[in-house]
Amino acid sequence: MGEGRRPPGGKPVSITAVAERAGVGLGSVSRVLTGKGSVSPEMLRRVREAAESLGYQPNLLARGLRSRATNTIGFVISDITNPLLAAIVGGAEAVLSEAGYSVLLTNSGGRPEVDAQRIGLLLRRQVDGLIVLPASEGDPGTIAALAGAGVPVVAIDRELPGVPEASVVLSDHYTGILAATRHLFETGHRRVALVAGPDMRPARERLRAYSDAHARAGVPPFGFTFGPLSPARGAEAVGELLRAAEPPTAIILGGNQLLEGAIEAAQGSGVAIGRDLALVCCDDIPLGRLHRPPIPTVMRDTDGMGRSAARAFLARIAGETPPAEVMATWFDSRADQDRVGAGSG
Amino acid sequence: MGEGRRPPGGKPVSITAVAERAGVGLGSVSRVLTGKGSVSPEMLRRVREAAESLGYQPNLLARGLRSRATNTIGFVISDITNPLLAAIVGGAEAVLSEAGYSVLLTNSGGRPEVDAQRIGLLLRRQVDGLIVLPASEGDPGTIAALAGAGVPVVAIDRELPGVPEASVVLSDHYTGILAATRHLFETGHRRVALVAGPDMRPARERLRAYSDAHARAGVPPFGFTFGPLSPARGAEAVGELLRAAEPPTAIILGGNQLLEGAIEAAQGSGVAIGRDLALVCCDDIPLGRLHRPPIPTVMRDTDGMGRSAARAFLARIAGETPPAEVMATWFDSRADQDRVGAGSG
DNA sequence: GCGCTAGCTGGAAACGTTTCCAAAACGCGC
DNA sequence: GCGCGTTTTGGAAACGTTTCCAGCTAGCGC
């Protein structure tokens, strides 16, 4: 009966209205509704009944204002249209909503200044904490906003100088790329290029692995580039590499968004991926998995990263200071999928 | 100098502190900061200066509580990992943030009961309106929550019986599928199947177009199925169709998530897409665009849909009642891309 | 110089909640 | 029946803002 609804024309039902209806004091209603403090069974019954019959819904603004806790966490993400980042958000949300937190998600579209602005907005909204995967590691506005946050901050896959109090959840990009590069050497490649993302931790770790693998194998590195993680950049970089006098025989792509452009460029050049050119991608996406032959990939558990970030936040709220967490990546040459693709139906 | 930061150890800076510092009254500070009411140039200067030097940041909870407007809109989306829906969100956010609104995004993971719960949460948070793309058209909890919202509601691609006051932005799925089906007939197909999404407006419109096209061409419909929009469902449905005694020669997929599974199933059955089996997909994704041969697709402007939904909300806020908007879809056989793919590089 | 108006200004009230404190009620032992 | 400690209760204060209203000031016409 009217449950959850505010009366059609009337004003929203307040705690005062519930108190009146139940014939009790404001304090008692609050105690019943929040479950804090002790109340008699009779009181419990009367207040619950009144609240239900009026369709009372607490005003979270007022609650947050008074209690200084909104049970809300701000999630700052650089590009919501990237399914990988979306998966991280999904994992975090699962853990957080179980713990009674709701998530305020903002999307900066890859512009650092928007990141900074959104962080400010979330803080003015009194979020209890922030989980950030910003577009930049060094943007002064973003750093300043995070450093002055005054609430727990968890950064995913970013090193934020100037925000030492932030907890971090990192991917071990090194191991995955090391294995991938070695695999390329083992299958005979000697001219291996790396198209990396922007100059931030993930790209630097991948570059380090790329360099180390070359050094250990005694193969001179072909070359690498930093750049934005976009299909356009993938097309541009791979196009350039293929047009070179002596093009690479293998290209490692430091991000799933590059794959789309890379395939496009290869198709445009009449180069057959997997035969004329070996491609290695980072992060599992259908485009790579379903390509024939499948595109070998450095994998990681995105859902798990989101969950870890959420748990780090919860730990921080509980007063602990969780250590930096480094999560595994692994290389999947996808040789088995090859067989499946060629198998019987 | 301390801009945007709250003092390291101290309490957050309130409007009272600014008033004190500037040596003026509270009301004046509020007038300066909100820009409402008139103030002398001297007052403007003093308050601005004080606010700046203290690094004042308004508390949006308090502001919302008192003024009953949060300049915030709730966006309820069923599956954030779908890049298409993410694009709609992106388009809406662009328009809304320009108009001074910020977006609270929630993700239900496709579960209607979560949708309903999140809508309630947003309303208790006093959002000024809702834009919804829920997992279900008929879920009683969702309907009830929306019907009692008390704020403007804009629904995207959904018909919500019981929420007559909602504005709607729809896709004209009919036209696109009609053209696609005709194209299949023209290229000689006579056994065309339709794998549709859940029984909601988009799937029903597609089915109507599919049926009409068949009726007009005098071709008996091969058959259709409703079902969830997931890769798994795509694989299952296409697998079943291919195993039939007399399988279809063409399959229309009513959603991009189905394509992944469809390709997988076809590969598993040793069926060559584009030769043994024609596939038509809905909504442009890299997986279809970069497939060789490219997979013909019913396109639409997702960014534009988000923008339209945002504009409908802004109109509602301004007191207008925008009519239902129906946005175009069009069929792209992608014949030209074929040529590009085979061209010189 | 006076009265009137219009623009500014200060501060109280209000928004809906939680928190705190004092008072009331209760239970229990003797 | 009384005293004491404990639980339960009601309501004032507080959270940080906007809104409202009354009062002040300055300007201006006469």
Task: Please explain how this structure is put together.
The structure is a homodimer of 345-residue chains. Chain A has 345 residues and is of the alpha/beta class. The first copy, chain A, has helices at residues 15-22, 26-34, 41-54, 60-67, 83-98, 112-124, 140-147, 173-186, 201-217, 231-243, 256-268, 286-289, 302-317, 335-342; strands at 72-77, 102-107, 129-133, 153-156, 167-171, 192-195, 223-225, 250-253, 278-282, 297-300, 325-327, 329-332. The N and C termini of chain A lie far apart (56 Å). Chain A folds into 3 domains: 15-58, lambda repressor-like DNA-binding domains (434 Repressor (Amino-terminal Domain)), CATH 1.10.260; 70-171 and 302-324, 3-Layer(aba) Sandwich (Rossmann fold), CATH 3.40.50.2300; 173-301 and 332-342, Response regulator (Rossmann fold). Helices cover 47% and strands 15% of the residues of chain A. In chain A, helix 5 (83-98) runs parallel beside helix 13 (302-317), helix 6 packs parallel to helix 7 (140-147) and helix 10 packs across helix 11. In chain A, strands 2-1-3-4-5-11 form a 6-stranded parallel β-sheet, with helices on both faces. In chain A, strands 7-6-8-9-10-12 form a 6-stranded mixed β-sheet, sandwiched between helices. The model of chain A is unreliable at 1-6 and 337-345 (pLDDT under 50). The longest helix of chain A has 17 residues, at 201-217. The radius of gyration of chain A is 26 Å and the shape is elongated. The first copy, chain A, is built from 14 helices and 12 strands. In chain A, strand 9 (278-282), helix 12 and strand 10 form a beta-alpha-beta unit. At the A-B interface, helix 4, helix 5, strand 2, helix 6 and helix 7 of A face helix 4, helix 5, strand 2, helix 6 and helix 7 of B. Chain A binds a DNA duplex (30 and 30 nucleotides) through residues 12, 14-16, 19, 24-28, 30-31, 34, 36-40, 43, 58-68.
